[in-house]
Amino acid sequence: MRMKFGIDIDGTVTRPDAIVPFLNEDFGLSLTLDDIYDYDLSILVDIPKEQFSEWWLEKEPLVYERSPLAKDAKRVLKKWEKHHDLYYISARSIHLLEKTQEWFTKNDLPFHKIELVDTHDKVIFSKKYELDIFFEDKHDNAVRIHEQLSIPVILFNTPYNQDSVPKGVIRVNSWAEAEGWVDKWLEKQNA
After folding, report:
1. pTM (whole model) above 0.85
2. Coil, strand or helix: which one is 68?
3. What distance in Å separates the CA atoms of residue 85 and residue 131, rounded to the nearest whole number?
């Protein structure tokens, strides 16, 4: 049975520390991923949110262009693409669609659809595409998608998403671990 996989991009397909070098360089810091305990990065750089937003708007295209792939993401996604539809749903701004597609091409990543929604609320788009499972790194997104759609959500474990999760949100530490869970889940779906 062909399934529809919803997949976040940043911090999920890309490494969750992709922004760290930019923060360190521009703000004179020496952060690692372990220092990022909150999704709101303005806390780390100790500047007003408005000023951080201006910095982010300037850096956003460069961060996305240089974001490294998460380990095993390409291998697993290429495997799944043969049997399932891959819908990437990201909070990135729509004006970055061309740059995002270029990044996918450069990294030889498969996709059926890339939807840049300019919001962290991905429930509407998950409903629109009738997704069967979702892959995410943002805690509240993962919980909301699971609770509103009753689908499993794979949550990639990071220091910034450590709040508790309901049973249908499954924490994994890697794409290899996600692959193992999904393989078992697919067996049950096809039984």
Report:
1. yes
2. coil
3. 9
pLDDT tens, residue by residue, 52-85: 999 999 999 999 999 999 999 999 999 999 999 9
DSSP E strand boundaries for 18-57: none
Domains of the chain: 4-15+69-190 (3.40.50.1000), 20-66 (no CATH)
Q: Which two tokens stand for residue 139?
A: 């805690």
Q: Which two tokens stand for residue 170?
A: 């499954």
CA distance 57 to 75: 31
The tokens for 127 are 């409903």
How would you write 137-170 as a 3-class SS string?
A: CCHHHHHHHHHHHCCCEEEECCHHHCCCCCCCEE
136 SS3 class? strand
Q: Residue type for 81, please? A: E
Phi-psi group of 130: left, alpha or beta (phi > 0 → left; psi -120 to 50 → alpha; rest → beta): left
Q: Whole-angstrom Cα distance, residue 61 to residue 96?
A: 7
Strands (DSSP E) along the chain, which ranges? 4-7, 85-90, 113-116, 133-136, 153-156, 169-172
